[in-house]
Write a structure and sequence with these properties.
α10 links the parallel β7 and β8. The termini are far apart. The chain is α/β, with parallel strands linked by helices. The longest helix is centred in the N-terminal third of the chain and has 23 residues, at about 60-80. The chain has 13 helices and 11 strands. Strands 3, 4, 5, 6, 9, 10 and 11 form a 7-stranded mixed sheet that branches. A two-stranded antiparallel sheet has the order 1-2. Among the domains are: about 1-65, Arc Repressor Mutant, subunit A; about 160-260, Periplasmic binding protein-like II (D-Maltodextrin-Binding Protein, domain 2, 3-Layer(aba) Sandwich), CATH 3.40.190.
Length: about 300
């Protein structure tokens, strides 16, 4: 079955921009033309590819096909560069899964070093970003350290260091008698989202128990720091983001061992390893500057 590259590019545009109308504007065609291309592709593969909602979203098959279209674009871009073929702007779209704290601390300088890509970043917890690679929904991901995903190349990056922190006033109110399973069970903590296990891991390591404290859900790395400084709760903050606050005393470390390192890997779909080699080099260089080196 030969897939039409124009139809694939149209599918990618619809899913990236969220509507048939926006895709039509970006592609310089009419919305009915976009509708016809998507319908023709759906008829060819025999299944629905786009949920006609607001915004338009991919079915599982649609996500796989859109990712395939982007991979083809990356391979063609690299081929043009290798053969020194001047075909105008060569930037290809690249979908990468990355955890929010890496995005807030160390990875942006790596993205700046590569001119060949237009990035589409999927933000997910490092313990779950590997799932995006397994599903074929991204070409590369920053993941929790572990075995290489089947069909992927893995590079150990180092560890992102976290510090259990709270404001002095919060400590005086909730931890006047010290950190214990009982005090942690009562004190409000900050939680990035339902996938965030860092606070639970630190409490288990610190106390040998698994307290279940009340929690505030704050899905923003910088808001996490501000909320801790203002006394909303305590939380595990990236060391890079709280260095100044700890020096000023607006945050203080908690417990006997406030630091926890989370080891990270860079994993790339094997078929895309060569076209993504410049980005992998930039990621490794940025990790050397922003992460604790791997042991």
């Amino acid at each position: 079955m030969q897939l039409d590259p124009t139809q694939l590019a149209t599918l990618s545009a619809v899913l990236r921009l969220g509507s048939f109308e926006a895709a039509a504007r970006a592609l310089g065609v009419t919305p009915p033309a976009v509708t016809q291309r998507i319908k023709a592709l759906e008829d060819q593969v025999g299944r629905r590819l786009v949920h006609r909602s607001t915004p338009s979203t991919a079915t599982e098959a649609g996500a796989r096909l859109a990712k395939h279209a982007e991979d083809v674009g990356l391979l063609e871009t690299r081929l043009r560069q290798d053969l020194k073929i001047d075909m105008g702007p060569a930037a290809a779209r690249l979908r990468v899964a990355v955890n929010a704290d890496s995005l807030a601390t160390w990875i942006i300088p790596a993205l700046v070093q590569t001119d060949d890509f237009l990035f589409d970043l999927v933000v997910d917890d490092q313990d779950h970003s590997a799932d995006w690679l397994r599903r074929g929904a991204v070409s590369a991901a920053v993941t929790a350290a572990g075995p290489a995903i089947s069909g992927c190349d893995r590079t150990a990056l180092g560890s992102l260091r976290y510090v259990a922190t709270a404001s002095p006033a919060f400590v005086a109110r909730w931890f006047a008698d010290g950190i214990s399973a009982d005090s942690l069970a009562r004190a409000p903590c900050l939680i990035f989202n339902a996938k965030d296990q860092l606070q639970l891991r630190w409490m288990a390591r610190e106390t040998g128990a698994r307290p279940a404290p009340p929690g505030h859900f704050l899905p923003s790395s910088h808001a996490f720091v501000e909320a801790a400084q203002l006394g909303l709760g305590w939380g595990m903050n990236p060391a890079h983001l709280v260095t100044d606050a700890l020096a000023r005393g607006t945050l203080v470390p908690l417990g006997r061992d406030p630091m926890m390192d989370v080891a990270l890997d860079w994993q790339v779909s094997g078929v895309m390893a060569r076209p993504l080699a410049p980005l992998t080099r930039a990621i490794r260089a940025a990790a050397r500057s922003g992460l604790t080196p791997p042991s």
